[in-house]
Specification:
single chain; alpha/beta; Ribosomal Protein L4, Chain: A; 2 domains; 7 helices
Length: 212
């Protein structure tokens, strides 16, 4: 059975927590996980590069000069792609929302559960008890990770009630702070250790029971 390491932030005591349910016992499927990561990274792209085609360039469409008698090559308007100021042929366009890499809900859930289960099987999941920051303190957050002997990269998952802790952890190098439902398969695989506050873990376990 997979276990998470529980660390008391005040006393430094360590214990273990049995992880049950499909969130932590799903067999990882590399193909589905790969599809999920590709879809997530594609979703993060901004697709800001965009060029105008011939029909999109503003200006007159009148023929520049008469067809015959000038001694020059025949030409239409001033906006083909081979003229300065003309429309671009084959350039990048902003990708519409209906295109891009997609993955259905069943696959996305299987990929997330598989990645989380792999972390649990490797002993890379941690739960923090007594996580109380009276005020933001990067020094206190760094000392806490040192006491836990984490090498990083680390992803710390906190709820909205842990605002001071979030402000403390976010300034540390190789540490990513996320709230529940703000991270996916890519973030899980990118981090070597994943640390949940007790409230964040309970929310994750609760969502697992609701989906069954």
């Amino acid at each position: 059975m997979a276990e998470a390491q529980v660390f008391d932030a005040r006393s430094g005591d360590r214990s273990s927590l049995n992880l049950e349910g499909p969130r932590f016992t799903t067999e990882p499927n590399e193909h589905v996980i790969h599809r999920a990561v590709v879809a997530e990274l594609d979703h993060k792209r901004r697709y800001t590069a965009s060029t105008k085609g011939r029909s999109e360039v503003t200006g007159s469409g009148a023929k520049l000069y008469r067809q015959k008698g000038t001694g020059r090559a025949r030409v239409g308007d001033a906006y083909p792609h081979n003229r300065v100021g003309g429309g671009t042929w084959g350039g990048p366009k902003v990708k519409p929302a209906r295109y891009g890499k997609r993955i259905n809900r069943k696959e996305a859930r299987a990929a997330f559960d598989g990645a989380l289960s792999a972390k649990a099987a490797d002993g890379e999941l941690y739960v923090l008890d007594s996580l109380a920051f009276e005020a933001p303190s990067t020094k206190q957050a760094r000392q806490l990770l040192e006491r836990m002997e984490l090498t990083g990269p680390v992803m710390v998952v906190l709820t909205e009630d842990d605002a001071n802790a979030a402000l403390s952890f976010r300034n540390l190098p190789r540490v990513t702070v996320a709230t529940p439902h703000e991270y996916g398969v890519y973030e899980l695989l990118r981090a070597r250790e994943v640390v949940f506050s007790r409230a964040a873990y309970q929310r994750l376990a609760g969502s697992s029971r609701e989906e069954r």
